[in-house]
Amino acid sequence: MLGLPDDVTVALFDMDGVLTTTAVLHQAAWKKAFDAFLTERGDTSGPFTDRDYLDYVDGRPRLDGVRSFLASRGITVDDEAAAAIGDAKNEEFLAALDRDGARAYPGSLRYLQAAREAGLRVAVVTSSKNGAKVLDAAGLAQFAQHRVDGNTIVAENLPGKPAPDSYLRGAQLMGVTPAQAAVFEDAISGVQAGVAGHFGYVVGVDRVGGGQADAMRAAGASIVVTDLADLLQS
């Protein structure tokens, strides 16, 4: 019914772009923060692009995303400057969240409801430090038995995606082995984390089209869908 192997008893969901529509808010906030930084330093390499977001930032903890993108442009900054870019991005994101709100994808809500009815247990694993606020705003907090977010990653000194540690922590909190859990991700870095952690199933959620689905399969996704409701037809 849920499109998962029979021995999977726990679902570990990324949040932005998988459960909620807030990935677009993150992307816009990153663009504003990075473009302001590049303009201020007189950089001529061009503005932050959609491809930059997918390749260097999407799914990663905030400071990891800053350093990954800057490295792609051959830019090195100190910790204070990196933190300032991350803070500017977060201010933009929170302003957009207050203005536009957070919504659950209808198909994701259907899937969560079906999972609850089927007895599949759920945790949320996100690099965002705003995980609790977004889940509450989207009305999804009720579905998650545990949450591993950006605050957990910092407090427990966990490597961020594409390292598997945040997902492994989610499985541990749920009391299962990785083989008994499925990972649901819209970011290549998250798919890579699921594969590296040897999880029982890795679902890639392609919200952007283009070559993203092929990239997810190349990264090791067990299946790629455009909406979680697609799994209910399996």
TrEMBL record:
Listed cofactors: Mg(2+)
Pfam families xref list: Hydrolase
EC nos: 5.4.2.6
Keyword Metal-binding: yes
Protein keywords: Carbohydrate metabolism, Hydrolase, Isomerase, Magnesium, Metal-binding, Phosphoprotein
Record Gene3D superfamilies: HAD superfamily/HAD-like, Putative phosphatase, domain 2
Signal peptide: none
Cited InterPro entries: B-phosphoglucomutase_hydrolase (IPR010976), Beta-PGM-like (IPR051600), HAD-like_sf (IPR036412), HAD-SF_hydro_IA (IPR006439), HAD_sf (IPR023214), PGP-like_dom2 (IPR023198)
Domain of life: Bacteria
Molecular-function GO term, any one: beta-phosphoglucomutase activity
Catalysed conversion reaction: beta-D-glucose 1-phosphate = beta-D-glucose 6-phosphate
Listed PANTHER family: 6-PHOSPHOGLUCONATE PHOSPHATASE, HEXITOL PHOSPHATASE B
Protein family according to the UniProt entry: Belongs to the HAD-like hydrolase superfamily. CbbY/CbbZ/Gph/YieH family.
Protein name (Swiss-Prot/TrEMBL): Beta-phosphoglucomutase
